[in-house]
Write a structure and sequence with these properties.
Blueprint lengths: L1 H25 L9 E7 L2 E2 L4 E8 L7 E8 L5 H6 L3 H5 L5 E7 L3 E7 L8 E7 L4 E4 L6 E6 L6 E3 L3 E16 L5
Parallel strand pairs: 3-11
Antiparallel strand pairs: 1-2, 1-11, 3-4, 4-5, 5-6, 6-7, 8-9, 9-11, 10-11
Amino acid sequence: MPHSNARSCRIAIALLVATPFLAPAFAVTPITPQKTAGKVTVNGKPLAVNHAYLFHAPDNWEEGEINSVVMITAKPLDEAKLRQAKTLVEALQFAPQRVVVEARSGGKADISICHPEFGDGMCYSTTVSGDDEWKVEPAVAGHFAGRLRVFGGQAWKVFEKYDLFYDLTFDAAPVADFKNRR
């Protein structure tokens, strides 16, 4: 028995000493998706809005301008894939069902809602402005927060056949800065 106890003791000590070195090798430090709340529906069918990710990318229309772009998703995204994305478009492809809010100068935001009701890979996009529809909220340094709400607070018809409703808030931490959109 003494031999067995000594061996067990050596194994326990070895594991104790090795654990701090093994943990980083096996640990995955996820991007911590930040808080979101609210509701998005198309024809009454919900799109979960649980996780928000902040990117920075060149404006699509104004040369030299860099915008905050928030992608809101149902499920957390794979950190390795997000970090490997070379462009904003590539990063957005990791979440086919999503809400994207791109803050633009002048108190406006471009939004895209990609929902299965619109069809595979299809999104509804529009520009919103005014405190009733879009508002940047206070956030801790480096984060970007806002509130997005359908005009009038009621579902409305888009493309003459989809009832669209959205009312959500988000606070997103930075994930990546892109030199190119595409």
